[in-house]
Amino acid sequence: MVTLLGLNLYPQQIPNLVPILEVEGENEGDKLGLAVKGAGDLNGDGFDDFLVSVGSKDSTYLYFGGNPIDTIPEEAFFPDLIRIADDFNGDGYMDLGILEHIPYEPGRIFIYMGGEYIDTLPDIVIPPDSAGTAAIDHRWATGDLNNDANGDFVFTDFNYNSMRGKIYVYLGQDTLDIVPSFTLEGTVGAEGLGLGCAIGDINADGIDDLIIGGYDQSEPAPDRYHYLKIFFGKQDFDLDSCFYIDEREIGNSFGFSTGIQLESFDVNSDQIDDIVVRGREVFFGDTSFNPTAVDMYYEPIPGTTGRSIPEEAGDINNDGKPDLLVSDPSLGSGSGVIAIYHGGSAEDTTIDGIYSLGFNISGFGSSISTAGKVDGTDRDRIIVGAPGFEFEENRGFFGIYGDTTTLTIDSRHQQIPRLFKLHQNYPNPFNPETTIRFYIPYDSKVELHIYNFIGQKVCTLINSKMKKGKHGIIWNGRDNSGNRVSSGIYLYVLSAGNRTEVKKMLMLK
Q: How much is the pTM?
């Protein structure tokens, strides 16, 4: 049973949703947990790592995963709002994006490029938009919008220019540019463009799509409304046109007056990403995406204020399906609560687990993230921040939580020294040739073969010993005899050491 300030909040708490680690800020005003973010395996030891921001020190701390999890940070990065982690330059290492938090002013973005060793000196500093607003209200997302195997990132400033709102898109590349690749500003006052932001492949074409939420307040109430703008991914991605969803036209309300927090992942296990709005409403992805109504409503957290934050939780119960983490940091007079919804069918909308500290807490769930396999088990964990811990003292707090049923140690975490990665070919579809890039973590025998869709080997591109690191090779669309192959789907299979990875590509004539 969970209680918040003596309130019986939800009597059906799953007992297996338990704390794995809880850490309190050392000093008054630390604001530990201002932001939290899973970062993948940064040091190559087989355990996922995570980052926690400390507001008072303008710093973001890196914690290495392990069994037990390390409670002493390894590195401190500047500044204090960790927002994104992805491979922006396609070298096989996770890169970090940390936002500078300056009250009432726009802040800089500090990019730390991953590598063999973790460097706390920023590689790129992106200056703020002089007309922008405070960073704490920005929304962020990462993915691959143009299918070039580099991570792209997007952030929005919904308060920009008297709440017109603005979108900033940075396409990943070998050398990241400090100038955004694309921007888009709201066209009318109080349009609220960018109140939500997510990236996922909602039309199942193999390329990520950008989902932007907004709340148009340009007219007096009750003529204000929420909307979604979807910019479908493509090799020549741009912001010139979008698919538009208006809650007035579909007859279903979604979002909340102060927010339309978004997340995108496969909710109903059909292998297509969906759109989750504030942890409540869901639009299902489809190859012919054209929703006419909200497709599913999750059971709300009892007593929720509506200011819920959704986040993909990873697979916390090890059933092969991604789960949804939702927090409401305002619930219980600001005590805050988190809830878990296990992934599954479209009919499964009930809460599967709920947790709160239930005492002297302010804003539990203000920041949430998947922590990955941070403790070497067979399931993902979640990380939750509470920068206002102990109310006025604001020491701050973060915790790692998970489902501990049928817990086993995953032996793979003891074997993989660093990231093994096969990138999507580019371009794709292609004609007449395409480039295949990959990263191997150590010197090893490498084989790269092409097969047709019925499993017949078409050609061998690599069969030799190679040095560790980033590699790329061009396939000219011919078989081992030099004959040009026909149009269709082909598989390319990379093997190095005891690791193998397979991806699909499409040849068009």
A: 0.77
